[in-house]
Every structure is written in C-alpha cells, then in structure tokens.
Amino acid sequence: MMVNARELIETYVKRVRELADHVRGNEQATKQSLVGPFFTMLGYDLTDPRECLPEYKADFGKERSSKPIDWAFRNNGVFAFFVEVKEVGRKLAGFDEQLADYFAKEPSVKLGILTNGVQWRFFTDLTNPNVMDKEPFAKWDIFNEESHPLDVISLLHKSQFNPELIRAYAQRQRAQNLLVGEITKLLEPAPEF
Hints:
about 40% helix
C-alpha cells in the first residue's frame, strides 16, 4: 500500500467519525460520504466504469434478483469484488444473504464486502467455491476499535489487489481463529471444578 498508509487510514477514520451522524439513515449519503472515499483512498476511480460499476445487476436465470449490487469492482477487466452498502445505523445482520446471492452469480468474484460505512464485513468462499462463507474472515468497526485492519486494507489496494492473496489471508485467519478456539477450550476449567 502507500508509504503513509497508516496516516491515510487515520484520516479516513476521523472522517467517518465526524460525518457518520450527518448521513445516518441515508444509504446514498453513506455511499457518497463514507464508503466511496474509502475506495478512492485505495486507488479506485469510482467514476470509471472499467473499474467500478455502480448498481450492477449480477443476474441470470429465471429467478432474477430485482436489486442490483451497490458496487462491482473490476481488476484487469474481470470482476474482482462486490460491495453492498447499507445506511449508517442499520445493523448488517441479515444482509449477508443478499450479498451472498450476488456473490454466487459471478464466479470470478472472490471477495464480498458488506458495510454501513462504520462497520465492515469481508467475506470470501473458503468452504465451497463460488458460495460465500457464512462468517466473514475479517470485521472492522470504526467506532469500537482502536486498531485498524491494515493488512486487509492493504490487500484491497488497487495497486496490489490479488484474489489469491486475499484467499490466503482468509485461510490464515480461519486457521488462527480455529487454533485460538481450541486453545480456549483446553484452558477452560472442567465443569466439575
């Protein structure tokens, strides 16, 4: 990523914290004021349809979804990742399925991002190819976290975007989470104590 990546992220976080209340309840304003600047910071041109298609309909077959995905990003002419945005203040739970529907319709997409501008959820398809995992491999809550997922954010930068690196990162995160879970179980006292 850029030399001063941490500084750019801090500036972005400050922006979100300052503007979130002003766009609360308005999805379009959330996209424009909070989410768009994130991808611009990462080197994407949201006005170039060769890189980013807003309101992309990833539909085929009889049971077509009537709602388009908010943004479909391309890398080297191939769809790379989808972004579904909800307005600030809206809980993201329940919208994973909507994103998964889009994800399944475009085999080249290996990353799905669900956000309300403050909370971010990053998904891939480790369990089954072209089927978005039920759990995100990374989460980011701008209001509740002091540290920022620089590793995930740097993987998203246009200059170094590589779906295989994202998958490798997601696999590493999953393995680490499983290991931590097993260690936690081993360290818990037995119920008879």
